[in-house]
Fold this sequence. Notes:
CATH architecture of the domain at 66-215: 3-Layer(aba) Sandwich
Helix content: 25-40%
CATH class of the domain at 66-215: Alpha Beta
Strand content: 5-15%
Amino acid sequence: xxxxxxxxxxxxxxxxxxxxxxxxxxxxxxxxxxxxxxxxxxxxxxxxxxxxxxxxxxxxxxxxxxxxxxxxxxxxxxxxxxxxxxxxxxxxxxxxxxxxxxxxxxxxxxxxxxxxxxxxxxxxxxxxxxxxxxxxxxxxxxxxxxxxxxxxxxxxxxxxxxxxxxxxxxxxxxxxxxxxxxxxxxxxxxxxxxxxxxxxxxxxxxxxxxxxxxxxxxxxxxxx
Length: 224
């Protein structure tokens, strides 16, 4: 008699237990194969965009949207304060992005060039020049093209921030002859780009935010 747990106690499985693999879906009846139905439904959705899910041509409240206010060490304090007031009056959350942490006049920086991420913001506004900060290391950010051409005039991390916002179809504002957008190869007349004085830029940004993204910035891929 084999001892419990010994190899002698192991019996060969029955032949029907060796059958493996998923059982086939039933092909009879009105439903047919559910996998075929799912395939055809998916193909139909790809051909016909859902009006219920589309964001094209619609607007929403801008309450609690997040705008990154990018400033330099010499940015106009009056213009920064005016932009903050205009955005906050519309219940927009503003995070000041500065070369380093601390106070810039009466304004406190919530983010720095080193730790700001484009994914945090729904839009960006650049006020004044943003030259490379002392801790900028252009060699670590080759994507920005830092050290070459117009990009050398702006901090490479700000250039990268703006380039990502541009590719994500987010609104971008620039005032006081900010050099950062030009350094990021962003056209001043591009779709979703706000320029002008402080009041005009603030209103343009709010209008662009209400549409969520600047969908017309890029041509859609042709449908098959």
